[in-house]
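seq:
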Amino acid sequence: MTPRPDADIQPVLQAAMTLVAASGLRGLSLRPLAEQMGTTVSALSHRFGLKDDLVAALIDAARDQDGRFLDAWLARARAMAPLDGTLLADLADAILEDMAGPHAARTQFYCELLLGAPSRPEIAAPLAAWRDRRLSFWRALAGSSDPVDLGGALHAFSTDEAAHGLAIGDLAAYRWLRRLNLRRLCGGVVPAAGASDLREFAVFHATLGELMDGPDGYQPPQLSEWQANVAGDIAKLIITEGTDMVTHRAIAARAGVASSTLAYHFPRQEDLLKAGLEDIIARLHGRVYRPPQSVSEADEDLSSVEIARATFAVALAATRIPTLKACAADMRRRRGENYLFILNRQVTGPSPFDLLSAQMLSITGIGQMILDGLLEGGPGAIDFTLVDQLRAIALHSR
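struct:
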């Protein structure tokens, strides 16, 4: 039926965001939503229509709520105008802090929708409207910024950082690295004469890596050979469709095994999810830690998209699985290490790029890949214009 225009969507939105924060998009269905609200599926359907109608209404309501949040920040920024690069970077950092703090539930809702959008065409249109609302905010905040779309770059950068802020935003080393990255993004990519930011970066880059070796470091699950083989199928599903699509039925069909056999080796849905994430983590480590010169340019676009979605998925999963936090932190701090080699390989003469600029460019590019996941067409639909513009500014500054 057609949803009633006077229906109060806000309590439903709060319940939906609570469910998504707890279990990803699989919680965004009528039965668990009705149970969360203490009502029935038929009552929800009567008020809001079928599931797709309700989900679209929830996304619209979240976008409106988010718009008021962004408008408040834009008013603060205009009261402080004009903004130089440092002040703009600090404002962006404060906004991301706010998104991961008091507004974490809505931020998680947005991030989970972005991760799941490629496999859910019914949410693409309302989610694209929300994405465009955020883009207009970042462009208004940045103001005129020729020759680079700085607002677009901040939008892309903030998308990747939003997920990591949710997972590891309580770590001072992460927040320091984020601020340094933003100051490079808003200040021209390359360091100013006499700048100390690379020295600061080195200190907190190392500090964030200490989590992996500490008492809360990541401990991979012990998998049998049979489980390890199936884990690759789980990982592919996580990367292409999101963590909430991992079910025994879906994995059994993908792996070509009996559901009963799969359930014997992986009794719980959480067991499936951890095995798939472990496969992703192992492959990411293989990519990140291997010598940069072994990275092939021929498959760079496709592997970059996979890495973007995989690390985004790990960060979101870490909000629900605390044992993944150290791994999410390590993946975040290693942003740009191989990309620096690729950047320098493409430069003739002295290179203006260092590890901090490479990390900032990598985060911006990964955020753009996540945003462009709403488009159809696979890796070829990814628009690398923003990163190319930032690279060109750095090269011009030599």
